[in-house]
Write a structure and sequence with these properties.
By secondary structure, the chain is an alpha+beta fold. It has helices at about 5-15, 25-40, 65-80, 85-95, 100, 135-154; strands spanning about 15-20, 45-50, 55-60, 115-120, 125-135. It has one domain (about 5-154): Haem-degrading domain (Beta-Lactamase). It has a five-stranded mixed β-sheet.
Length: about 150
């Protein structure tokens, strides 16, 4: 499967912005995501963090501790680059290389694979991330984007 257009990934990050993001927002978003995943019987971990503090974490049937490790590695990419983990990986591939080959970051600690998306607050910037692990990377990313779009439309 070909990578998505980088302009679309940028547009998602510019469009999916919160007016505020607190512990209650994390709980509400996390619950929405878990309910959507359960309805579809998706084997995913959902994790939401703000300023380095994990505010929500749920592991659905079919996941393992490896998924938690993937969450941590993807979150580190969002923290470092301020963009979705998928966007970062696609950007490196569009440049003719890979994140693993060019970033000079330890692949045991960083994974530029789809599934972690920056939580951006209008007028503040990136304050955290929402992350899914358990599906192929494009599907992890698409699920997060879909859920953010739905949540922000309410």
């Amino acid at each position: 499967m070909a990578d998505p257009d980088l302009a679309e990934l940028r547009a998602q990050e510019q469009r999916l912005v919160f007016d505020r993001f607190d512990n209650t927002t994390a709980w509400d978003l996390g619950q929405q995501m878990v309910l959507a995943a359960r309805r579809r019987e998706l084997p995913v971990v959902v994790s939401i963090e703000r300023n380095g503090q994990r505010l929500f974490h749920a592991a659905l049937p079919g996941t393992a501790s490896d998924n938690d490790a993937w969450v941590d590695r993807k979150v580190r990419v969002v923290r470092r680059y301020g963009r979705s983990s998928y966007h970062v990986g696609c950007d490196f591939r569009a440049g003719g290389s890979t994140f693993e080959a060019k970033s000079r970051l330890d692949p045991d600690l960083y994974a530029a694979h789809g599934g972690s998306f920056p939580l951006t607050v209008r007028g503040v910037g990136v304050v955290g991330s929402v992350t899914v692990s358990g599906l192929p990377q494009a599907e992890d990313h698409a699920f997060v984007v879909e859920q953010l779009e739905s949540f922000l439309a309410q």
